Amino acid sequence: MEAGNHTEVSEFLLLGLSEDPELQPLLFGVFLSMYLVTVLGNLLIILAISSDSHLHTPMYFFLSNLSFVDICFISTTIPKMLVNNQKQSKDISYIGCLSQVYFFMVFAGMDDFLLTVMAYDRFVAICHPLHYVVIMNPRLCCILVLTCWLIILSVSLFHILLMVRLTFCIGTEIPHFFCELAQVLKVACSDTLINNISLYVATALLCAFPLTGILFSYSQIVSSLMRMSSAGGKYKAFSTCGSHLSAVSLFYGTSLGVYLSSAVTHSSQRSSVTSVMYTVVTPMLNPFIYSLRNKDVKGALGRLLNRATPCV
Questions:
Q1: N- to C-terminal Cα distance for the chain?
Q2: Span 169-177, mean pLDDT?
Q3: Which has the closest alpha carbon to 256: 201, 208, 219, 297?
Q4: DSSP 8-state assignment for residue 91
Q5: In the 8-state DSSP scheme, what is residue 311?
Q6: Which residues contact 105 (CB under 8 A, 6 or more apart)?
Q7: CB neighbours of 183 closer than 8 A, spacing ≥ 6?
Q8: 3-state secondary structure of 97
Q9: Which candidate, 231, 298, 289, places its Cα nearest to that of 55?
Q10: G-protein coupled receptors family 1 profile domain: which residues (predicted)?
């Protein structure tokens, strides 16, 4: 291939979920609705927690961070998809694609880390209730969240620096509705061996360690509950974990489903459709999981809405 075809590309083409023009208005309406519901739901969670002093605890501190990350997570991909849909365009700039890759990895990783930190919080609350306030002090909570940010920002930057070394052909098409690192590496015109090895190692470590932490925390929680003599005490203790378990199951279930489907099928379009589950559906459902299953959050939301509604 001529060197001219390997010049510094200024843009890529995102093929999206479907090329059928009749489906574009439907896709725009569905994804715009899901985006607005996600942003509104997570904003309400953040406002309810920040405005209610009863929720100024480690568990809800981590939940407000999770809601913020979910807003950023879905905002990384969906707005550009909606703009392209309306403009009937497929292009995304090279810098825009790099930015999507970077921030997508950052916020996906933070989702994973925060769910792990929240599992540790539940472990301390149930297994060491008398020392909970001392252990989960505000300083430790801030250090845990800050450490998560520093790790994932550094790892994501490392992948971007490796990606900048790659060359791409002019008119490169990405069979996805956003720039996902694995998909971008597949369409590179230069050798991506180092990038792929780094991606596999990072994915294994960033998934294995958090998941191991979550499983260990819940194994200790179950063990502690088994030693309780009161059935009511067991139910009350474990009920505080219900929302978190649902969120963990949704996150890992959809992520695992995407990667299993991409391994089984060679259809890039089917893979991009299944990825909607963890890129859009998971951030949208998290506010419902934590509000519908949690009396404290429902009460705080009710008080927030009552204050926002003017008296007639």
A1: 72
A2: 84
A3: 208
A4: E
A5: P
A6: 152, 155, 156, 159, 181
A7: 174, 175, 176, 268
A8: helix
A9: 298
A10: 41-290
The phi and psi torsions of 25 (rounded to 5 degrees) equal -60, -35
pTM for this one?
Answer: 0.89
**Start-end of H helices in 88-230:** 94-127, 132-135, 138-164, 181-186, 193-226
The backbone region for 77, taken as left when phi is positive above 0, alpha when psi lies in -120 to 50, beta otherwise, is: alpha
Where does the pLDDT of residue 272 fall: very low under 50, low under 70, confident under 90, or very high at 90 and above?
confident
What percent of the chain shows pLDDT beyond 70?
Answer: 89
CA distance 238 to 98: 42
Q: At 107, phi and psi to the nearest 5? A: -75, -30
| Residues 94-138 pLDDT 10s | 999 999 999 999 999 999 999 999 999 999 999 998 999 999 999
Q: What is the signed CA dihedral for 71, 77, 78, 83, rounded to 10 degrees?
A: 130
> CB of 176 within 8 A of CB of 272?
yes
- Angle (deg, nearest 10), helices 58-75 and 138-164: 20
pLDDT, residue 107, reads 96
- How far is 187 from 171, CA to CA, in rounded Å? 11
Task: Dump pLDDT digits (tens) for 204-249.
Answer: 888 889 999 999 999 999 888 888 777 766 777 777 788 888 889 8
**β-bridge pairing 91-93 and 173-174:** unpaired
Query: Residue 257: which residues within 8 A CB-CB, separation 6 or more?
Result: 274, 277
List beta partners, residue 256: none
Q: Mapping DSSP to helix (H, G, I), strand (E, B) and coil, where does residue 266 land?
A: coil
